[in-house]
Design brief:
With about 270 residues, this protein is an all-alpha fold. It has helices spanning about 5-30, 35-40, 55-95, 100-110, 120-130, 135-160, 165-170, 175-185, 190-205, 210-215, 220-225, 235-270. It is globular. The two termini are about 30 Å apart.
C-alpha cells in the first residue's frame, strides 16, 4: 500500500474512532449539567458551570452500595461460570462417555432460549425456594445463562490441545483431577480471559433479572439503582448521567487493558495448530 493509501486508511479509522468516542464525551458533559441547562441549552454545548456535585449527589444517594453489589455479584457469577464451563468442556472434549454428544446438544439448546421467556418460570421457582429478593437468585441465573456461550467458546480451544500432554502426565502418575487443574487449566488461560471479559460485560450490564428478582435497595445493582433518580414529578437527569459514567468506567477500563486478550483468545480457539 502506498503513502496515499495509508493516509486515507488512517483518516477513515480516525473518523470512525471519533464517531465511536463522541457518545461517551457527550454523556460526560451531560453528567456535568443541571436540568435547566440540559433542556434549555444546546445538547452539544459545554456546561456553563461544571456540576461536579452531581457525582457527589449520586454517591451519597446510594450508588456506592449499588456499585459494590455489581462488583461482587458479577465477580462471583463470572468465577462460577468459568470454572463450571471449564470442567464441563474438559469432560465433553477430553473424556470418552456415551452421552457426551447428547449433553453437548442440550447445553447448546440453552443458546436459543430467550431471556424474557424464562422470567416467569424462574420467578416461580425462586419463590418456592425462598430466593426472591436474594442475590443468590441473580448469581444462579447469570451462571446458568452464561454457561452455553462460555462452553461454546471454550470448545474450539480444547479441541486443539494435544492429547500427548495428558498422556505424559498420566504416565508420570497424575490423576484426572491433576490433569485438569495442573495441566489443562493453565494452558487455557488465553481463552479463559476471553470468556471472563464477555461474562463480566453481560453480568455488569444486566437489568431484567435484577429488576424482577430483587426489591431491597441493599441488593440492587447499578443498572437498577439508576431508577432511584427518576421521580414521579421530577427527574434529576444530571445525576442519571453521572451514574451512567460511573457504571461504564469498570467495563471501559477492562476493555482498554484486556481487549487484546479477547482477540487472542478467539483467534486461538478458531485456528487449529
Amino acid at each position: 500500500m502506498n503513502r496515499l493509501g495509508y493516509i486515507l486508511l488512517y483518516s477513515f479509522l480516525g473518523i470512525v474512532a471519533v464517531i465511536q468516542l463522541f457518545p461517551l464525551f457527550w454523556l460526560f458533559l451531560f453528567s456535568l449539567k443541571d436540568n435547566r441547562e440540559i433542556f434549555s441549552g444546546s445538547p452539544f454545548a459545554l456546561p456553563s458551570e461544571f456540576k461536579w456535585e452531581n457525582y457527589l449527589k449520586v454517591w451519597e444517594g446510594g450508588i456506592g452500595l449499588y456499585f459494590w453489589n455489581s462488583i461482587w455479584i458479577t465477580a462471583t457469577a463470572v468465577v462460577l461460570t468459568v470454572v463450571i464451563a471449564s470442567m464441563a468442556t474438559f469432560a465433553l472434549t477430553r473424556m470418552k462417555w456415551k452421552l457426551s454428544g447428547l449433553v453437548l446438544g442440550l447445553i447448546m439448546v440453552g443458546l436459543m432460549i430467550p431471556v424474557h421467556s424464562a422470567i416467569i418460570p424462574l420467578f416461580s421457582m425462586f419463590l418456592q425456594v425462598n430466593l426472591i429478593d436474594n442475590p443468590l437468585s441473580i448469581i444462579i441465573t447469570y451462571t446458568a445463562y452464561n454457561l452455553p456461550i462460555t462452553i461454546m467458546i471454550l470448545l474450539g480451544f480444547y479441541y486443539t490441545l494435544p492429547r500427548e500432554i495428558e498422556e505424559a502426565a498420566v504416565i508420570d502418575g497424575c490423576n484426572i483431577h491433576g490433569v485438569f487443574f495442573r495441566i489443562i487449566l493453565p494452558m487455557t488461560m488465553p481463552i479463559m480471559s476471553t470468556t471472563i471479559i464477555i461474562n463480566m460485560i453481560y453480568n455488569w450490564n444486566e437489568f431484567v433479572f435484577v429488576n424482577t428478582f430483587i426489591s431491597s435497595d441493599k441488593y440492587k445493582t447499578l443498572t437498577v439503582g439508576i431508577q432511584n433518580f427518576i421521580g414521579q414529578y421530577m427527574t434529576d437527569w444530571g445525576a442519571i448521567g453521572a451514574t451512567l459514567i460511573i457504571s461504564i468506567l469498570p467495563i471501559l477500563i477492562a476493555f482498554i487493558f484486556f481487549s487484546n486478550k479477547v482477540v487472542e483468545g478467539l483467534a486461538s480457539s478458531a485456528v487449529k495448530g
